[in-house]
Amino acid sequence: MENVLTNATIQVYPNPTQGRVTIDLGGFYKNVSVVLRNVVGQEVMRENYQKANRIDLEVKGETGVYLLELMLDNKRTIFKVMKQ
Fold first, then answer.
1. What does the alpha-carbon distance between residue 62 and residue 50 come to, in Å, rounded to a whole number?
2. Domain boundaries, the chain
3. In which residue ranges of the chain is pLDDT below 70?
């Protein structure tokens, strides 16, 4: 069974964005996976990081709503990001 992260200390800003977002994880994680999907579920990008506490990410593509899925040490959370 997959663990769901309910850590309210994670912040994704600015949101809405013009293209660049900062993901503040609120602490260090050994393994971080970031997947960005468009509103129809197509994967736009995927990145993996080691020992991260903050990630700067470029949201490439059209304006609209994206789903940002974070896997932090095998715990998952999803944020909605709007690109203007």
1. 29
2. 3-83
3. 1-8
CB 35 within 8 A of CB 52: no
Residue-level pLDDT at 1: 36
Tokens of 40: 């129809």
Q: Which fold has domain 3-83?
A: Immunoglobulin-like (2.60.40)
Contacts 24+ apart (CB under 8 A), 2-11: 2/76, 3/74, 3/75, 3/76, 4/75, 4/76, 4/77, 5/70, 5/72, 5/75, 5/76, 5/77, 6/77, 7/72, 7/75, 7/77, 10/70, 10/77, 10/79
* Residue of 57, 72, 64 lying closest to 2 (CA atoms): 72
Burial of 49 (0-12, 13-18, 19+ CB in 10 A): middle
